[in-house]
UniProtKB/TrEMBL annotation:
<comment type="similarity">
    <text>Belongs to the inositol monophosphatase superfamily.</text>
</comment>
<feature type="binding site">
    <location>
        <position position="124"/>
    </location>
    <ligand>
        <name>Mg(2+)</name>
    </ligand>
</feature>
<dbReference type="InterPro" id="IPR020550">
    <property type="entry name" value="Inositol_monophosphatase_CS"/>
</dbReference>
<keyword id="KW-0479">Metal-binding</keyword>
<dbReference type="InterPro" id="IPR020583">
    <property type="entry name" value="Inositol_monoP_metal-BS"/>
</dbReference>
<protein>
    <recommendedName>
        <fullName>3'(2'),5'-bisphosphate nucleotidase</fullName>
        <ecNumber>3.1.3.7</ecNumber>
    </recommendedName>
</protein>
<dbReference type="GO" id="GO:0008441">
    <property type="term" value="F:3'(2'),5'-bisphosphate nucleotidase activity"/>
</dbReference>
<dbReference type="InterPro" id="IPR006239">
    <property type="entry name" value="DPNP"/>
</dbReference>
<keyword id="KW-0378">Hydrolase</keyword>
<dbReference type="GO" id="GO:0046872">
    <property type="term" value="F:metal ion binding"/>
</dbReference>
<dbReference type="InterPro" id="IPR000760">
    <property type="entry name" value="Inositol_monophosphatase-like"/>
</dbReference>
<dbReference type="GO" id="GO:0043647">
    <property type="term" value="P:inositol phosphate metabolic process"/>
</dbReference>
<feature type="binding site">
    <location>
        <position position="61"/>
    </location>
    <ligand>
        <name>Mg(2+)</name>
    </ligand>
</feature>
<feature type="binding site">
    <location>
        <position position="125"/>
    </location>
    <ligand>
        <name>Mg(2+)</name>
    </ligand>
</feature>
<keyword id="KW-0460">Magnesium</keyword>
<dbReference type="Pfam" id="PF00459">
    <property type="entry name" value="Inositol_P"/>
</dbReference>
<comment type="function">
    <text>Converts adenosine 3'-phosphate 5'-phosphosulfate (PAPS) to adenosine 5'-phosphosulfate (APS) and 3'(2')-phosphoadenosine 5'-phosphate (PAP) to AMP.</text>
</comment>
């Protein structure tokens, strides 16, 4: 199952088109590109084709609404060309019409929930990073009775070597990682293009950092200030005695990098009112958990993927190894308390 997902998703082909494409704006002002739509259409089309016997349910980020407007003909045409080129290079004879593309995108309209099986797709996670030429990920997971049982994370711009090393060794030039995990079977990483790498000729099992002293830990957070509260993560890091500056990268590549021990902690504290979506965390969550991490909200509760499209959680998402989690949780809760009731100065 995982194997055919690997061979079909070729994000680098999509990336080339992205560089020439217009970036559209969704109704919530967030960006979406032909690559987001193309990736969703492709993954949805292939999954449905490969799983004919199963009742197919896909919860995916994008929908075809804006593409059906009169002004979107050109963009739709580009997505169609991109998809047909990719299918042709994969030996597929069928040429898809514009309507086929829209239908494939809209296959991702399922609401998910606690019953049965649902695929969960973020066709391009970290679109802002993608547009900037930074990190992004293609994230696919499978829910079974509300639990994530499989996750695949393609990170086309992530170096195969650890990003913890600041010296730009030659292996930093080799980019493109594929992480995958199935429940109870660990997490594996291989090069995205299938080429051999001296460290990972085929696939290697990866593990999170075993650091026990928080002063030696480094932490990941979003690149985008709008996606997390830097002042809060700064306060948590100070309480833990973390010396290294934060590593700010886009997308679920953070979960992938964490799963192989490039850093020890991931902190995500969205601003008030933001509701996290399952496709932003499902694949990353199983990839990092199967590598030995604990993922929880600020109350210490595991993420619940059974509630539909949204994660219903108490403030924030935190990830680290089992040893560090109790210390991290205390630092998080102390910092949140202080942020909600800042200490008052002495009265005059
Ligand atoms: N205000 C906000 N707070 C937290 N996350 C947000 C946000 N606005 C958008 N996001 C989500 O953050 C994701 C990117 O996360 P990161 O900051 O780790 O790169 C986006 O995924 P997409 O790029 O798939 O839309 C989007 O779903
Ligand atoms: Mg988006
Ligand atoms: Mg996303
Ligand atoms: Mg996305």
């Amino acid at each position: 199952m995982v194997e055919w997902v690997h061979t079909r998703i070729h994000p680098k082909k999509v990336q080339k088109v992205l560089l020439q494409s217009d970036v559209q704006s969704k109704s919530d002002k967030s960006p979406v590109t032909v690559a987001d739509y193309g990736s969703q259409a492709l993954v949805s089309y292939i999954l449905e084709k490969e799983l004919p016997s199963e009742s197919f349910s896909l919860v995916a980020e994008e929908d075809s609404g804006d593409l059906r407007n009169d002004g979107s003909q050109e963009v739709l045409q580009r997505i169609r060309e991109l998809m047909n080129d990719t299918l042709a290079s994969d030996g597929e004879n069928k040429v898809l019409s514009a309507e086929d593309v829209l239908t494939a995108i809209d296959s991702g309209k399922s609401e998910g929930g606690p019953l049965g099986r649902h695929w969960v797709l973020d066709p391009i996670d970290g679109t802002k990073g993608f547009v900037r030429g930074h990190q992004y990920a293609i994230a696919l997971a499978l829910l079974d009775e509300g639990k994530v049982v499989l996750g695949v994370l393609g990170c086309p711009n992530l170096p195969l070597a650890s990003i913890a090393n600041t010296d730009q060794s030659s292996s930093q030039n080799q980019v493109g990682c594929l992480f995958y995990a199935t429940i109870g079977s660990g997490t594996y990483m291989q090069s995205l293009d299938g080429s051999s790498h001296k460290k990972s000729p085929v696939a290697i099992q990866v593990h999170v950092s075993a650091i026990e002293n928080p002063a030696e830990a480094s932490f990941f957070e979003s690149f985008e200030a709008a996606h997390t509260t830097f002042s809060l993560s700064g306060s948590i890091a100070t309480k833990l005695g973390v010396k290294a500056p934060p590593v700010r990268i886009d997308s679920q590549a953070k979960y992938g990098a964490l799963s192989r021990g490039d850093g020890a902690i991931y902190l995500r504290f969205p601003h008030k009112g933001y509701r996290e979506k399952i496709w932003d965390h499902a694949a990353g969550c199983i990839v990092v958990t199967e590598a030995g991490a604990v993922v929880s909200d600020a109350a210490g509760k595991p993420l619940d993927f059974s509630k539909g499209k949204f994660l219903d959680l108490d403030t924030g998402i935190i990830v680290t190894n089992q040893k560090l989690m109790p210390l991290l949780l205390k630092a998080v809760q102390d910092s949140l308390r202080e942020a909600s009731s800042p200490p008052t100065g002495p009265s005059l």
